[in-house]
Design a protein that fits this description.
The complex is a heterodimer of chains A (about 325) and B (about 325). Chain A is an all-alpha fold and about 325 residues long. Chain A has 16 helices and 2 strands.
C-alpha cells in the first residue's frame, strides 16, 4: 500500500535520492580517487550486505511502530553461538540453522513480552540485548573463536563471486526482493502496515495485531543473524564485539531512507543504507578516525529526520514556493 | 511509541489487589535488606567501612546521573543520550583543565554543555514532534563522538584533584563520603517538586494522556524541554563527578551507564508509585544495584555474569511494574 504510493507518486524523491548518491560519490572521488576502485566498490557492497540486512530487520519493527535496541546483543550472542558450532566441527548449514533458531527464540522473547504482556518496547529490548551480550561470553569467556572457520567454507560467502558481483550482495538483493514482495505486494505486508498505522482499527478488521508485532521482532532477529553470518564470513572469526557496529548504521539507514522516501518501506531502507554505507566506507578510506565518522552518521540521522519532519516541511512550504504544493503528508514514523 | 507502563485494564482476581500494593511499596526495600544480609553472610567484607564508602561514592554519582532521567521516563518519553552526555561532560572537564582552566570554570562549562544538549533534545522532541528515541540516539552518537574527539580517542589525565575530590574522598564515620549529603539534599528537593508541585502532577499526567494535558492548558512543550534539559544537566554533573573521582576524562565511560541507568529507573518504578518511575524509587534502586555489584565483585562473579543478572533484573522489574500497573488500572476502574 505504502510502497505503491511511494513508487507512483515519489518519482521526485527517487530523483533526489539518485542525486544524493551521485553527489556523495563525486565528493568522495574528488577527495580520494581510490573511492571508485574495484576494491573499494567491492568493500562497499560487502559492508552494505551486512548493514542492509540489519536495517531490513529494523524496518519490520519500525513499520509496526516499535523499536528494537537488542540488535547489538543479539548479534554478539548469535555470532558466538554460530562460531561455537563451527568450531565444534559441525557443517556450516548446522551452524546457520542453530543461529537462526536462536534468533527466532530471542525474537519471540522480545516480541511476546511486548505484544502479549504489554511491556514497553525500548526498555524490554535493551534488557534482552544486555542479557544476550552477557551470554555471548559463555562459550569462551570472551576469547575469539576461529577454529574450523576456513574448513567450514563460511569464508566463501564473502569471497565467492557470481556474475562479477560478490555472493553476499546477491544474498542481500535476494532477501530484499523477498521482503519487498511480502511487505508491498501481499496481504501480510498490508497487515504489518495496518498494525503500525492503527492497531485498533486493524484489530477490528480481523488482523491479529499482536501476532504481527511478535512476527516483526522475530523477523528483525532473523535478519540480524543473517547480517552477523556475513560479518563472520568476512572476518573469519567470531568475537563478542561482532555486530557492535550494526545498530547505529541500521537506525540511520532506516530513518534516513524513510525521510528521503517519505515513509518507512523496504526500498526506503535500501536507499538509506546505501547512502550510510557509502559515507562510512568513504570516511574509512580517507582515514577519518572512527570517532568522527560515528558523529557524522548521527548528525546525518538527526539532520534527515529534522529536515523531512512535518514541522520543517510546514516551515519550508511557507518559505519556498519552489517546493511541490502537495507534499505528501506522511505521518509515518515521525510521531512520538 | 508510548513508554507508559499502564497497559489496558485486564480483569484480575480480587485478592491480588492488596498484594500488588504491598509489592509495589516495600518490595525493593525488603529485597535490598535481604540481599545485603545474604551477601554479608558469605562475604562480611561487604559491610567494611571502606567498602561501604566505595558503594556510597558510586551510588552518589549514579543517583545524580538518573535524577533527570527518572522524570523523562516518568513523563512517557525516553532519553538514551544521558550516559554520553556524562561522557562528554567528563571529557570536556578534563580537556579544559588540561588547557589550564580552573575547576570552577571547567565544571560550569561542562554542565552548560550538558544543559545545551538537553535543550536540543527537548526542543526537537517538543517543538518538532520527533520521536525521542531517534533524537536521543543521534545526540548520544554525536556526544560520544565529540567526547572521543576531545582526547583524540584516548584518556585525558587530570593533575589537580580539585575541590570535588575532597567531597568524594572525605568520609564521615569512616564510611559515608561527604558527597552523599548534598546528593541526598538534591534528591529531597526533587522529591518535593515531584510530590508537592504542580509540575510533578503534570509529569505523570503526561504519561497517561498527553493530549488531555495539552487540552487543559498546561504548557506541555515547555515542560518537555525542561525535563530533557534537567536530564542533560544532571547527567553532565555526574560526568563532572566522574572526572573528579577517576582523576581523568574517559571517552568511553558512557557505554556501561545506559543499561545501569535504565535498570535503576525502571526498577525504582516498581516502588512507591505503581509502575511509575519516581525519585525515591530511583534512589533505592541505585543503592540496590550498588550493593548487588559490590557483592557480585566480592563473590568473584565475572563481569558478563553481572551483566546477565542485571538484564534479568531489568526485565523482572519491568514485568512486575507492567503487571502491577494493569492491576492498578483495573482497581481504579472497579471503584
Amino acid at each position: 500500500m505504502s510502497g505503491r504510493f511511494i513508487l507512483s507518486r515519489g518519482a521526485g524523491r527517487v530523483v533526489a535520492f539518485a542525486a544524493m548518491v551521485l553527489a556523495l560519490g563525486a565528493a568522495f572521488t574528488l577527495a580520494e580517487p581510490r573511492f571508485l576502485s574495484n576494491a573499494n566498490l567491492a568493500g562497499i557492497a560487502r559492508h552494505m550486505a551486512a548493514n542492509g540486512l540489519a536495517a531490513l530487520g529494523l524496518t519490520f519493527v519500525v513499520i509496526v511502530r516499535r523499536f528494537d535496541l537488542s540488535l547489538a546483543g543479539v548479534a554478539a550472542f548469535t555470532a558466538m553461538t554460530m562460531g561455537a558450532v563451527i568450531a565444534a566441527g559441525l557443517p556450516l548449514w548446522v551452524a546457520v540453522l542453530v543461529g537462526l533458531a536462536v534468533g527466532v527464540g530471542l525474537g519471540l522473547v522480545s516480541g511476546l513480552a511486548i505484544s502479549r504482556f504489554g511491556m514497553p518496547d525500548i526498555v524490554t529490548t535493551i534488557g534482552v540485548g544486555s542479557i544476550c551480550a552477557g551470554l555471548a561470553f559463555l562459550y569462551t569467556g570472551g576469547r575469539s573463536i576461529f577454529q574450523n572457520f576456513f574448513q567450514s567454507g563460511i569464508t566463501d560467502l564473502n569471497d565467492a563471486r557470481l556474475l562479477g558481483l560478490g555472493v553476499s550482495l546477491w544474498f542481500l538483493l535476494g532477501i530484499y526482493g523477498l521482503a519487498w514482495f511480502v511487505m508491498h505486494r501481499t496481504r501480510t505486508g498490508a497487515a504489518f502496515y495496518a498494525t503500525g498505522e492503527n492497531p485498533v482499527a486493524a484489530y477490528y478488521s480481523g488482523i491479529p495485531t499482536r501476532r504481527y508485532v511478535t512476527l516483526a521482532f522475530v523477523a528483525c532477529a532473523v535478519c540480524t543473524v543473517l547480517a552477523v553470518l556475513l560479518i563472520l564470513a568476512e572476518s573469519g572469526n567470531a568475537e563478542t564485539n561482532k555486530g557492535a557496529n550494526l545498530m547505529m548504521p541500521a537506525y540511520a539507514g532506516v530513518f534516513l531512507g524513510a525521510a528521503i522516501m517519505g515513509g518507512t518501506s523496504v526500498l526506503a531502507s535500501f536507499a538509506g543504507i546505501l547512502l550510510i554505507t557509502m559515507l562510512l566506507d568513504g570516511f574509512a578510506l580517507m582515514g577519518v578516525p572512527y570517532y568522527y565518522s560515528d558523529g557524522v552518521v548521527s548528525l546525518i540521522l538527526l539532520g534527515g529526520v529534522v529536515l523531512f519532519s512535518d514541522a520543517a516541511r510546514g516551515w519550508l512550504a511557507g518559505l519556498l514556493v519552489l517546493l511541490p504544493a502537495k507534499a505528501p503528508a506522511t505521518q509515518g514514523e515521525k510521531r512520538g | 511509541m508510548s513508554m507508559s507502563l499502564s497497559g489496558p485494564a485486564q480483569p484480575a482476581p480480587q485478592r491480588k489487589r492488596s498484594f500488588a500494593r504491598i509489592i509495589t511499596n516495600l518490595w525493593l526495600l525488603a529485597a535490598l535488606v535481604a540481599m545485603t544480609l545474604a551477601i554479608s553472610q558469605q562475604r562480611p567484607q561487604l559491610l567494611d567501612p571502606g567498602n561501604i564508602a566505595t558503594v556510597l561514592r558510586s551510588f552518589s554519582i549514579m543517583v545524580i546521573m538518573v535524577l533527570g532521567l527518572t522524570w523523562v521516563i516518568a513523563s512517557g518519553k525516553i532519553d538514551v543520550s544521558f550516559m554520553q552526555v556524562a561522557a562528554l561532560a567528563n571529557m570536556t572537564c578534563a580537556a579544559l583543565l588540561q588547557q589550564g582552566w580552573g575547576w570552577g570554570a571547567a565544571i560550569a562549562a561542562a554542565i552548560a554543555l550538558g544543559l545545551v544538549v538537553g535543550l536540543v533534545n527537548g526542543g526537537l522532541v517538543a517543538r518538532m514532534k520527533l520521536p525521542p528515541l531517534i533524537v536521543t540516539i543521534a545526540t548520544a552518537g554525536m556526544c560520544a563522538s565529540a567526547a572521543a574527539a576531545l582526547g583524540k580517542g584516548t584518556v585525558i589525565r587530570i593533575a589537580d584533584p580539585g575541590p570535588l575530590r575532597g567531597l568524594l574522598e572525605t568520609t564521615l564515620f569512616g564510611a559515608v563520603p561527604v558527597i552523599v549529603l548534598p546528593v541526598l539534599g538534591l534528591c529531597l528537593l526533587a522529591w518535593y517538586a515531584q510530590e508537592r508541585l504542580a509540575m510533578g502532577r503534570y509529569i505523570y499526567a503526561m504519561a497517561q494522556n498527553e493530549a488531555a494535558v495539552v487540552a487543559v492548558g498546561v504548557p506541555v512543550g515547555r515542560i518537555v524541554v525542561l525535563l530533557f534539559a534537567l536530564s542533560g544537566a544532571s547527567a553532565a554533573l555526574a560526568g563532572v563527578l566522574l572526572a573528579a573521582n577517576l582523576s581523568s576524562g574517559q571517552p568511553t565511560i558512557g557505554g556501561a551507564y545506559l543499561i545501569n541507568g535504565l535498570t535503576v529507573v525502571l526498577l525504582g518504578g516498581m516502588m512507591v508509585h505503581v509502575g511509575k518511575p519516581n525519585i525515591l524509587g530511583s534512589v533505592t534502586a541505585t543503592l540496590f544495584l550498588g550493593v548487588l555489584f559490590s557483592g557480585a565483585a566480592l563473590l568473584g562473579l565475572p563481569d558478563y555474569q553481572r551483566q546477565i543478572i542485571q538484564g534479568a533484573l531489568l526485565l523482572t522489574g519491568l514485568a512486575v511494574a507492567t503487571g502491577a500497573a494493569r492491576m492498578h488500572a483495573h482497581r481504579r476502574k472497579g471503584n
